[in-house]
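Q&A log
Question type: sequence-to-structure
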Amino acid sequence: MRTAKPDRMHLQNYVFGSTSAIITNISLIVGLGSGQVGKIPVLGALLTLAVADNISDSLGIHMYKESEGRGTRYSLLAMASNFSARLLISLTFIAIVLGFTAAQAGPVAVAWGLFLLMALSYRLSRLNRQKPLAEIARHLVVAVCVIIASHFVGLWLSSHFRS
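Response status: OK
Response body:
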């Protein structure tokens, strides 16, 4: 098995968690915002994501690294890195929902999340010696598709299941 350079190994430990947190948090804010559920349910969903889903994914990363035969120390480092990246990013989205009105939180969250995704994509493209604009565009297209789908799911739910 090829050993990764320290810089690459360090970045790999954060990439999955960061990307997952960015897209999932934006999707929750946009989807629930489209359903006009209010701040409290959005905050509840974001906090659940920041804790329960984060622990679940971090354990999954840990077990995946163990299945690769990476050893306990490396698996624990990967788990901790994933957890901390996701938690930190989730907290920024929670701050957005707390700091802005419900109408403002969606656009601000989308702008913040896409900025983070572009920065991460740029860093990865430079590390892999790829063209940054092509990589950023490819990653943004996927994220925007998820955001649009979340918006329409929220609209559909609010029109069909109003209490």
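Response note: The longest helix spans residues 6-34.
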